[in-house]
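user: can you give me the structure for this one chain? tokens are fine.
assistant: on it. calling the predictor now.
[tool input]
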Amino acid sequence: MECVSRYLLSVKMNVFKLRQGEQDSRALSIVGFHLATSKKYPWYQTRNGKTLHYAVCPECDNPIHIVNLDVDSKVDTDGRSLPLYAKHAAVDIAGIGTFDRDAYEDCSLANPASLNGGNKTRRPGTVTAEICEMLMDHADAIQYMIERFLGASVSDQLFASILEKFHRQEGYLYREVSTSNLPYALLYMAGNQLATGCSPKAGSPFARALTASTHFELTAKGWIKRKAGSNAQLRFFVTDHVVRKSASTNEQTMMLVVDEEVSGQSHRLLREGVKLEIDFFRNLLGKRMRLREMAHKEFAGISHSVD
């Protein structure tokens, strides 16, 4: 591999993990990478007299190259700051792992795409199976992330409706949907939903929407209540998924829209962009799976041995 840089795929990312098969996702920083790797092989490798730095993509498990980690200068020839970031490596890296192009093609970290596109071109296979398994095995974590986005509790009835809409549209077949953005993909594909059974947090978008409502208010316990004599409905939907790509990261937002509807006429209460917590969700899943593995290792087989 005479020139490693020509094997690198161009999209930048700001997270990494150490080994293939691990669930951890770490934010990329100079000190954080040093502490995680102890500056040792295989994350530090010398090629053609230069020290190069490697790790693994948290989503697709492919090798990645850490760029601008330990450099003599932190600025380029024009005086501009050199950002620290990671790129997928399109080759096998000794000690790190093999490169799987199919997995790369379906990796949202490789090329995060807006859900606005609706590109239903994924064929059933490994990725679709992983998405469906996550929906079944981590439904509570997905519901929790939806609640964080809305700033309100989500009833079982509402969550069931969101799942049904995603299933009906075969959301797992859309290339923009991944295991990293799954809670937000569900919301995006949920269509127009009733906010029945929601309990907004103080200062949340839903709470702010209610301050403009003629027909709804919050009870003393924080539940949304229709005012006496009204037959209005409080509804919401999500739109305008935006991926803002910068030198070192990709910030994503979606627009939350809240309406009150009376006799078929809608009155807009709120339209607000909300940031997607992609890294938080990935780390939440990683922690849950680590803890499950610990407990399984400790107690596996006990249920079969107890009378």
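assistant: here you go. Residues 278-299 form the longest helix (22 residues). The two ends are 60 Å apart (CA to CA).
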